[in-house]
Automatic annotation (TrEMBL), chains A, B:
It comes from Cytobacillus mangrovibacter. InterPro entries: Peptidase_M32_Taq (IPR001333). This is Metal-dependent carboxypeptidase. The keyword Hydrolase applies. It holds the Pfam family Peptidase_M32.
């Protein structure tokens, strides 16, 4: 088989893979939207069946031969960026999915099922000791699994690399130290600031149906294309990629702030995913890079755009028109309310400034555990100490502390860094965008989102996963990942809100 | 491989087949409920992919060997009814799906795609000549396809047999003659009757949301289990079997009569499908016999139950409470309104009495065409003549006439008989039910649906497709299919409503 046939053969595998991936997304959507309670048993079996079929794709002889052929192939000999993207994505998926023996995958599945129950029990009782044995087992098993994927790298690097393609742990560690220290410094200034923010306006009760209608209007005006998606309501919001032109978003309407900003966040994921160009779709590279890179797009729209003054300069009059709650609240008060800095124990409701500290400290703890600088007995104390040191608040029990996230019980070790890295990407993209389109915010203030969305689409969104996160960043910003751009942005924004001097 | 292994191997094939069948149902639901317009292209490709995978199941060596092994196997040597049902269903599916060469299937797919466009064009223009060439081609191709499935039978028998397992055309023809003549006789009496039914009460405008809420209440009270399903809104109502405990129904709310009775009809399909017992589910025989038999369950609930006096004795007070439109309408007027006999050109909105004439005359026309007693040039005249003879009304153009149904353009030849046969099954089941549970209607009048649903579940619903339609009928009624029970029921009901003497 010649080069063209080999290329076509892995292209076909990627096509099939995407069908199963899209199907899995459809099942996720269904699970929360429509699946009746009694339908769950059969659906689990059905999903298991199709997951098995998906796994068979990369276990085929064709896949094996493709992997051998292209592993040693000089990428510069490939015709263009699209072909390079195809080969890169194929090898990345191949290496991450085929090297773990089936019995280890089964062991992990049964362990995580057990661990999630243990975690729930522990969370209810606020007692880490219930969860600890399962947690230790999960870390041990995941480290073992990482060895299969790449025996030459530290297993923690391998796991993080499965979540974020091309990630380098030591570099992340360095960036996180800079980011952490920078945020803590800003937080200290805020603590000393005389500015007191009254956010009672967004803590009021809102009519659910009216909020729903407003949020739909808001994200569509921001750039989310409903003819390529749809809206759903769930407890824990998500976006699902059911097709290159079918990316649906969800939120909940429990509070104004969560409902609105979770929706913009998910719309950020969705706009990235639904804007792959036709050639990228045909190459089965639609939907974008996963992990931190996808998170950069959601957090960009949620915070850098959605919590900007200019965004609400445009939308606030409409908000006031629709909700009597804001009748006597001026824009400045509202703007400060949505940007109020308030350290808390919960990552998912954290403000923009302190948010990154939550994933950073989890990443640090994971690293300490796998490198032997911490053990599972000391975990609750270590967790609480870090919250006290970084955020200035100390969890008073395990539920507020080490049991906060379900992630570890699901086997997600080496995963938390994505949430903070996404912010760094976003800050760096923001700077490039402002250089190229200096009037982007003033246009947003006029309700013109075209310059923003055009720049994002042209430079990032349309390319799907043609380029790796690192390549994409270099193409757009000319540099590798830095912490300073996001930190500069935070300093500028919060020094204005809390009126402190930049040193 | 021994008997047990052979049996297990076809059981596994049936399990996989059901997963794809359920997936295909999920796609149908999605298509009408949530799929965004722009998402359609990719979804078509994705569906094509999974349909191909489904086809591979019965093309496997395992399937081939299973078919060879069990084709000559004496069914009485099988362990029990469940095993017999498994083998029977496997062979039925195997024979209907594997014998047609792939190129013929592709030819049919492309022809029906073209034919549906031609039909639409013809329908718009009310001009049969636009559709005729495609229609002729479809009949020719379908007859050819039937030869592959069974070269020893008349192709029309084969096609009808693919829709209705075990059907015998000559017997159907005989039953239909009896049914047709019987209905025409009743219709003549009604035409001479002095009873004039005023159905203006159900032709009023109704608030859509309130109608929706009422219909949900109604079908749940009738026995539809929402925890094993869900509700949707579409133009052409359907029920979808997404799992043994996930059978969703749809209706539309354009008119009171259509909305309510389409919902009860679909709930009838759904109750049958969602009540397979656990052993039947485990044997992958859940969901029931397709074609006429499934239609018997939907039409039973829609008409024999849902348009009975007793049904509304219970529900009418609630209906009156909810809708001011019925405030000054008594039950008798309402009951007569929903049972008003009014010949029309449209099968889908036909009343209970004349309904069967629509599919019967289509069946007769198909039979005449394939047996050479009619040709495609004379089709519009033939169609109109039959409407005039049977229903006493003559279509004035092709749209009212021969272009009424989309079915033929979709390749559904030998399919219409299901719609009328279902009524015969229903009438025969009704008689058996009344023998076993004489107070079933008086209990319904009290709002107690347990006797009805228990009898249906125990005798029919729980068995899924363990027994063929014919076996099922004999088990429950002790006889083969007859026309007289349904005709007796019609005579009894309509002689009361229209006050004529039974001869």
């Amino acid at each position: 088989m010649g080069f063209q046939e080999k290329l076509q053969s892995i292209k076909n595998l990627m096509r099939d893979y995407k069908y199963y991936e899209a199907l899995s997304s459809l099942f996720t959507w269904e699970q929360w939207q429509q699946l009746p309670t009694e339908g769950n048993d059969y659906r689990q079996k059905m999903q298991g069946f199709f997951t098995g079929k998906m796994g068979e794709i990369f276990l085929s002889d064709t896949a094996k031969q493709g992997a051998i052929y292209f592993s040693d192939f000089d990428p510069s000999l490939l015709g263009d960026d699209m072909e390079r993207g195809l080969v890169r994505s194929f090898l990345y998926l191949y290496n991450n999915t085929t090297k773990v023996p089936l019995e280890k995958q089964v062991e992990l599945a049964s362990l995580t099922a057990k661990a999630q129950k243990m975690w729930q029990e522990a969370y209810q009782a606020s007692d880490y000791s219930i969860f600890k044995p399962a947690l230790e087992e999960i870390f041990r098993l995941k480290m073992g699994i990482a060895k299969y994927i790449d025996p030459n790298k530290h297993p923690f690097y391998v796991l993080a690399g499965s979540a974020d393609e091309g990630i380098e742990i030591e570099k992340v560690n360095l960036l996180f130290k800079e980011l952490r220290n920078g945020i803590i410094k800003i937080l200290e200034k805020i603590n000393k600031s005389s500015v007191n923010i009254d956010d009672s306006c967004i803590l009021q009760q809102f009519d659910k149906e009216e909020l729903k209608t407003f949020i739909k209007y808001l994200v569509e005006a921001t750039g989310y294309d409903s003819s390529r998606g749809g809206f759903g309501e769930v407890l824990h919001p998500f976006a699902v990629l059911i097709g290159p032109r079918d990316v649906r978003i969800t939120t909940n309407y429990d509070t104004f702030k969560f409902g609105v900003f979770a929706a913009i966040h998910e719309a950020g994921h969705a706009m990235y995913a639904q804007r792959s160009n036709d050639a990228v779709v045909d190459m089965h590279l639609w939907g974008g890079n996963m992990g931190a890179f996808h998170e950069s797009q959601s957090r960009f729209y949620e915070n850098i755009i959605g919590k900007s003054k200019e965004y609400w300069l445009h939308f606030y009059p409409e908000l006031q028109k629709r909700f009597a709650q804001f009748e006597n609240v001026d824009l400045d008060t509202f703007y400060k309310a949505i940007n109020k800095v308030e350290p808390s124990f919960k990552r998912v409701v954290a403000d923009e400034l302190t948010y990154s500290l939550h994933p950073i400290l989890r990443f640090e703890i994971e690293k300490d555990l796998v490198e032997g600088n911490a053990n599972f007995n000391m975990l609750p104390e270590l967790w609480n100490d870090k919250y006290e040191t970084y955020l200035g608040i100390r969890p008073t029990n395990d539920r507020e502390g080490v049991l906060q996230d379900v992630h570890w019980s699901m086997g997600l070790v080496g995963y938390f860094q994505s949430y903070a890295l996404g912010n760094l990407y976003g800050g760096q993209f923001r700077r490039a965008m402002l250089k190229a389109v200096p009037n982007v915010y003033s246009e947003i203030a006029k309700g013109n989102f075209a310059p923003l969305n055009q720049w994002m689409t042209e430079n990032i969104h349309q390319h799907g996963r043609v380029y790796s996160p690192d390549e994409m960043l270099r193409r757009v910003t000319g540099e590798e990942l830095q912490s300073k751009y996001f930190l500069d942005y935070l300093k500028e924004k919060y020094s204005q809100i809390y009126q402190f001097d930049l040193e």
